[in-house]
Amino acid sequence: MLVIATFGAYVSGDVAHAGPRPNIIVMQTDDQDAASLTRRVMPRTVELLKDHGTTFTDYIDSGPLCCPSRAVLLTGQYGHNNGVLWDNPNPYGDLREKGNTLPVWLKRAGYRTVHLGKYLNLYARAVGDPNEVAPGWDEWHTVLEPISYYNYTLRENGRPVKYGGRPEDYLTRVLNHKADGMIHRYVPQRRPLFMEIDQFAPHGSRSTRAPECERSGIPDPRDRDLFTHASLPRPPSFDEADVTDKPSYIQAQPRFTREDIAVQRRQYQCRLASLRAVDRGVAGIVQALRSEHELDDTAIIFTSDNGWLQGQHRVAGRKVDPYEEALHVPFVVRLPKDMRRGRGNPHSLPTTVANIDVAPTILGIAGAKPCSGPGHCRILDGRSILRAIRSEGHRWPRDRGILLELRSPFNHAAPYTPCNYQGIRTARQVYVEYHSWTATDKGACIRREEVEHYDLRSDPFQLQNLFPAPTGTARASRERELAARLGRLEDCAGIRGRDPRPASGHYCD
After folding, report:
1. Which of 118, 142, 284, 353 has a CA between 20 and 30 Å from the CA of residue 474?
2. What pLDDT is recorded for position 443?
């Protein structure tokens, strides 16, 4: 959605401070669930970011799939406004206003912009030349398909650079090394640095170097045996026995065999091990900033594009299903020293925030506007979480609703997968309306209307679908209210009191 707006209220309400603009570093993993960001798995990230920053314990991905989530981060808009609602057949091509995105806004505000790692899928198909640099990036070191941990090509500022199968070519190592080098090269300088590191780990891949990790995250060789004794988590939802209350595509999936569970355990161990190199990368970035005396003048954000289901509700190794394990991902913000309150920012907040809030937060830190030029501005659907941090969650919408949305554009998906759904996720409730899904191994989307509704406080493992509620009950009234709120969110845009009235008449929460 492109509009002409001044954004005066947006900037004055969310700008971080009036002094020199801080550096901003965003680190994003691929397919990392919130439960894996622990001291055991990522000790340096916990020590250097969580212990010195604010962790949002209810951070939600509005579309649990790589490209829809990454497009939200780039635009601050839900998929129905930015155009990206699925990973195929041409997600970067579907992105609206490619020249009016976060790196463009920050470059226009005086930042030097650096991208390292993964971008939106099928980028080369959309632009024609795989070496073309996306709008807004001063430094472009991006890996395109086929993406793997070894034997890949980085597109480095307009030229292809091939990497092989040696340990030093391991993708996470390479990205970590480049990130450190960019910090030493560009800070401190007159222009502040915005750097986004999009790690591939713990995304699945093929590798002859670690055959036991086939179709899982491939660890750095030094970490290969790190979690070989880790047990696969088995919450009450694991291999759920009774799925008669679940959507038909879940009911159609068989229970796991002993071999299925053994494979899942190996994949889980490999995913954890692949995150240790990311953890070293976090430590390297913090050390590089410290050595340049810039750590106190840098905002650092750590997150993931989406979560991961590892056996919950009979779903093994997937992310598109709108269950908590896929929606709930890490989100940690370490602010610059002069942006912290006198007694420090809250260590953690239960405030409901989402990936639509990342771009507004970065703009607030930078004192920038979502505009590529005069009169060419995006209306953002999210809010700056700086308000929540400063007010310890009090200056934030109560019972905020986050829109959940995915839609396959070509009536085809993997077997037993939802193709089209919209939902609303609040701190306590999740309500999802499914419109189509796939069955059998042919993967054709079947039109079928089904609904799930869970009370996350009383049923955190989502074992009992409350829909349909008995007629005339308080629960039935609540479901009608959730359905009505979802109807307003499905075409929402902007924030009431900050943005012009949207064409739909519906503001986002």
Report:
1. 353
2. 76
Has residue 508 been placed in a domain?
A: no
By three-state DSSP, how is residue 337 classified?
Answer: helix
Count Cβ atoms below 10 Å from residue 242 Cβ, excluding itself.
8
Closest CA to 204 of 274, 261, 132: 274
Taking residue 185's Cβ as centre, other Cβ atoms within 10 Å add up to 13
Distances (CA, A) of 302 to 172, 330, 421: 15, 7, 28
Paired tokens of 356: 């639509």
Q: In this structure, what token pair is assigned to residue 265?
A: 């355990």
First to last CA, the chain: 17
Tell me if 68 is assigned to some domain: yes
H or E element at residue 38: none
Structure tokens belonging to residue 472: 């005339």
Report yes or no on 99 lying in a domain. Answer: yes
Active site residues: 66
pTM reported for the whole predicted model = 0.95
The token duo for 337 is: 């020293």
Q: What is the 3-state secondary structure (H, E, C) of 361-384?
A: HHHHHHCCCCEEECCEEECCCCCC
pLDDT tens readout for residues 414-473: 888 999 999 999 999 999 999 999 877 667 888 999 999 999 999 999 999 999 999 999
Q: Does residue 6 carry a pLDDT above 70?
A: no
Give the count of beta carbons closer than 10 Å to the beta carbon of residue 232.
16
The CATH number that applies at residue 289 is: 3.40.720.10
Domain that holds residue 253: 2-10+24-338+345-489
3-state helix, strand, coil in the chain (%, to 5): 30, 25, 45
CA atoms within 13 A on the CB side of 79: 28
CA 185 to the chain's CA centroid: 28
Strand 23-29 to 139-143 pairing: unpaired
Return mean pLDDT, the chain: 93
500 within domain boundaries? no
* Number of domains making up the chain: 1
Q: Are 59 and 328 in contact (CB under 8 A)?
A: yes
How far, in Å, CA of 244 to CA of 205, rounded?
Answer: 33
